[in-house]
Amino acid sequence: MRILIYTPAARMGGARTHVLGLVPELAAIAPTDEVLLLAQPDLLADLPPLPSTWLLRAEQAHTRGFVGRLAWEQRILPRITRRFRADVLLSFGSFVPLRSPCPTVLEAGNALPFTRAYWQVIARESLRVQVEEQARWALLRASLRAAGRVLAPTRAMRQDVATRMPEVGPKIDVALWGVASIFHRVRWSDPSGDAVLGVSRHGINKEFDVLIATLPHLRRRYRGVRVVLTGSPGESRWSRRSAGLARQLGVGEHVCFAGDVPNAKVAELIREARLLVFPTWCESFGLPLAEALAMGAPAVAADIPACREVGGDAAWYYTPGDVDSLAAAIDDLLRFPEATAAMAHSAYERGKMFDWRENAVAVRQTLQKAVG
After folding, report:
1. Residues of the chain with pLDDT under 50
2. Is 30:1 a contact under the CB 8 Å cutoff?
3. Is the pTM above the cut of 0.90?
4. 3-state DSSP: the chain helix, strand, coil percent, rounded to 5?
5. Distance between CA atoms of 19 and 27, rounded to whole angstroms?
6. Which of 27, 156, 157, 337 has the smallest set of CB atoms within 10 Å of its CB?
7. In this predicted model, what pLDDT tens digit does every residue of 138-166 receive, in sequence order?
């Protein structure tokens, strides 16, 4: 096959991790495929050597703004696709050309616009933001209808899309994401410290403020407990809100921001923590939860479908938005080390299911379906 892979959304977080995990495995399972990969320069620099059948081209569509990116994707990208004589276009950008010269496969990796809560938040934003988000939503729906096949990282994400757009449901395939190999190599063992770790970017759907709000209660029982968060206080307005709440509650000195850390450092942070908390109210997958499970680390996650699908019976759960529920789940893990050790073993076994090679096989099968 001749495949054009377009990755404008893979600048950070799970989307970037997905591309870095998927691309080498796609090259390994089908070395004769001819591939043109359009990606950000820094992402291309982080990839391992690929076969000579792979062409890499730096592209930064996200720097053009929404209107500029829209024009580029709908006018220039089809020309590149035609010039490359692609059999199929795989897009990680939430959108595809509505008039593509070849079949398209779109990864639906963002669950937020399919939730009512997201639009309630957007309704409180400026008029400009509301108009832009509505335009993105309209283009996303049009792209999902135009795509030959759609990829979702979980059954939960497939259900989110199919509920809002029933006509798209029959063409959605699930390709479970993997985790970087370091999370399979490094094994968690109960550390001596009392760090509760939160890993993720500080975005609209994350509940790090709920995690911080548990600290006054937890510190009354466990004097040494502290919260370690990836990212920085100034990363976003949500991280600033979390840092402000910590100061307001008088626990600011017990909340540490670890900065923007690479995967190797994330694995180290998980290994040094008593447990990982993945506080969120909406996810398509839940990569930090999968990474913790792969290391055999105890984890608490939001009780939402995607996290339940990833964690199964190998994680604890709390009710999203409920400080008392999260505090109780963390308290259980800190108070009963025997149960925590048993859960850590279950986590390690479940973590074996998150494999980029299997993801690549599933993705390529979907590409073949699209080609016909």
Report:
1. none
2. yes
3. yes
4. 50, 15, 30
5. 12
6. 337
7. 999 999 999 999 999 999 999 999 999 99
